[in-house]
Amino acid sequence: MPQYLFYLGREPELSIAELETVLKKSRLQFSAAREEKNLYRISSSSPLEAPELMERLGGTVKILESIGPADNPAAAIHDYLCRLPAAGKLSFSLSGPNAERLAIETKKNLKSAGRSVRYIEPKNTATILHNNLVATGTDLTMHRNELFVTRAIQPIEAWSERDYGRPGYDPKSGMLPPKLARLMINLSGAENDGALLDPFCGSGTVLIEALSLGFARIVGSDHSPKAIADSERNYKWFAERLGGAKKIDFKLYQSDARELFKRLPAHSVAAVVTEPYLGKPLRGREPRDFVIAQARELADLYTHVFRTFAKILKPDAPVVFVLPEFRYRDEVTSVNCLGAIKKAGFSVCPLSPDSDSLLYARPGQWVARQIWKFQKN
Ligand SMILES: C[S@@+](CC[C@H](N)C(=O)[O-])C[C@H]1O[C@@H](n2cnc3c(N)ncnc32)[C@H](O)[C@@H]1O
Fold it and tell me: Does residue 175 line the site of ligand 1, with CB under 6 A?
C-alpha cells in the first residue's frame, strides 16, 4: 500500500478535516494516522496524484511519499538515488535526524560510484522549489527510520499573489485568508456542477477560490455596493489569469443576505460557503456589554440568514459558515444561535471526532473564527 506523509498548515485539525473530505470524495480507499501534531500519514489502496491534490488543498503544505523502511539510512538513500536516471549532475537535499552527516556520506559514496552530485541544504521550501528538487524526486526526508521523497509543495507564490496582488481590496471589512476560503469550500464537499453561493462575498475571496476549483455556477452577494464592485474586479482579474472563464455562470447581487430569497429561486443553490459579517472590529476600548450586545445582534442576523438559506438551498445542501468567538478582556463570548439554526432546518456535521466545529485563531486577536458545517435537512 503506498504510504504518504502530509505536512499540515497552521491549523492542523482543519487541514485534516479538509484532507479527509477531499480523499473520501475521490472514493479512494485509505486509512489515516496522526504521526505528530502537524504530520498525517495516509495509506492508500492506489497511488495518489500528489501534485493535483496539492493544487486542490488549502491546508496542506507538503506531501511526501514513502520509499520504504530504512534501518540503514545511508544505504537506503544511496540505493534510492542510484536508481534515478543518471543524466547530468544529481542535485539532492535531505531533512531529518543527522541529515547533514548522512548527506555528506551519500555524496562521497555517489562520487566514488562515478556520479556527479551536489547536496543542497533544504533551508526552506523556496530552496527546494527553486532547485527543482520536487520534479527530479530528490528532496528526501528521513522520518522514524523510513525514507520519504517530496511529491508536492504548496505553491507559495501563487497563494501570496491571490492574497496581496488582487486589485479590489477592503481592509475595513476584513479579508478571509484565501487558503482558508479554499479549505472551507473543500470542507463543504460540494460537487462543482451545482451553484455555490457566498452571501457575504466582500471582495470575493470565496468566489475566486470556487472559480479556481472549477465550479461551474458561482453566485456572490453582499449588501455593500463597494463589495460587489470589488468582487467583480477581483473575479475578472483572476479569470484572466486562468486564461478566461467563459463557460462559468457567474452572478453577483447587491442584496441583504436575509432578503436573498427575493433574488434567487427556491431550492436553486447547491452549497453555501461564507464568512459572514462578524461585527464591528473591536479596538480594545469597548465595554464588556458592547461585546455581549454585538453577539446578540449577530445571533439575530445569522438566524434570519439561515431561514433564508432554508428557502433557497436544495435538500441536503451543505453550509460552511464562520461564527465569531470574541476573546475580549479574558472572556470568551460566542454567538448563541445554534438552536435557531437547527430550528431553521439544519443539522450540524461534526468536523472532527472530538468537536463539532474547529477554530481558526491567531494569538492576540480579539475575534477567533469558529468553522462550522451544517446540512439542510
Ligand atoms: C467579513 S466580510 C466578508 C469578507 C469576505 N469573505 C472577503 O474575504 O472579502 C463581511 C461582509 O458582509 C457584508 N455584510 C454585512 N452585513 C450584511 C448583510 N446583512 N447582508 C449582506 N451582506 C452584509 C459586508 O458588506 C462585508 O462585505
Answer: yes
Pocket probe for ligand 1: among 230, 233, 277, the residue whose CB has the most ligand atoms within 8 Å is: 277
At 41-74, the pLDDT tens digits run 999 999 999 999 999 999 999 999 999 999 999 9
Same domain, 206 and 174: yes
**Which of helix, strand or coil describes residue 345?**
coil
Which cell goes with 205? Answer: 475571496
Indicate the residue among 128, 154, 180 that finishes a domain: 154
Q: Look at ligand 1, atom 25, and give the residue with the nearest C-alpha.
A: 224
C-alpha to C-alpha distance for 257 and 306, rounded to whole angstroms:
9
Whether ligand 1 lies within 6 angstroms of the CB of 174 is answered as yes
What CATH number should be reported for the domain holding residue 60? 3.30.2130
pLDDT in tens, 309-340: 999 999 999 999 999 999 887 889 999 999 99
Here the cell at position 43 is 495509506
Mutational test site, ligand 1, from 200, 218, 261, 301, max ligand atoms within 8 Å of CB: 200
Domain that residue 38 falls in:
3-154
Q: What is the CATH number of the domain that holds 284?
A: 3.40.50.150
Listing DSSP states for 281-295 in one string gives: PP-S-S-HHHHHHHH
- Identity of residue 121: E
Q: Could you tell me the distance, in angstroms and rounded to a whole number, from the CA of residue 128 to the centre of ligand 1?
A: 39
